[in-house]
Specification:
With about 130 residues, the protein is an alpha+beta fold. It is about 15% helix and about 30% strand. The chain has a six-stranded mixed β-sheet with strand order 1-2-3-4-5-6, covered by helices on one side. A hairpin with a 2-residue loop joins β5 and β6.
Length: about 130
């Protein structure tokens, strides 16, 4: 019996940075790589690139509108170039920003998180509504 559980990918160090490594985004807010998780829900293989972005939380959080272009950028400039090093071609890429680390799948209503899903074609991320 095969279980359909998320798996944290371990790939070559040159392909994916280590957790905590800073990633530059257009807004200039501090962002660091957290991890990549993959799973296979009903629509096929999904790679979830998760990033820590403390400024989306706190007393004066950055709103989604202020960081949505960062999420597009992370898909195009961070996720896409690393797909070949990770494994099989996914049907979706999910980019998530979280104000503080949250274990994948754990409910954390007190932690602000933003998610966007993308398909990809011809070297471009294509935004997909959830």
């Amino acid at each position: 019996m095969m279980l359909n559980l998320p798996v944290i990918l371990l790939v070559a160090a040159a392909a994916i940075p280590v957790a905590g490594e800073p990633v530059v985004v257009p807004s200039g807010m501090p962002v660091s790589f957290e991890d990549v998780i993959w799973d296979q829900p009903g629509d096929g293989l999904v790679y979830r690139f998760r990033f820590l972005a403390p400024e989306i939380g706190g007393e004066a959080p950055r709103l989604y509108e202020e960081v949505s272009s960062d999420m597009d950028y992370l898909c195009e400039s961070f996720a896409l170039p690393r797909l070949a090093a990770i494994g099989p071609e996914p049907s979706r890429i999910v980019i998530s920003l979280m104000a503080e680390p949250v274990a994948f799948g754990d409910p954390a209503p007190e932690v602000r998180q933003y998610f966007e899903a993308y398909s990809h074609a011809d070297g471009n991320c294509i935004w997909e509504a959830f």
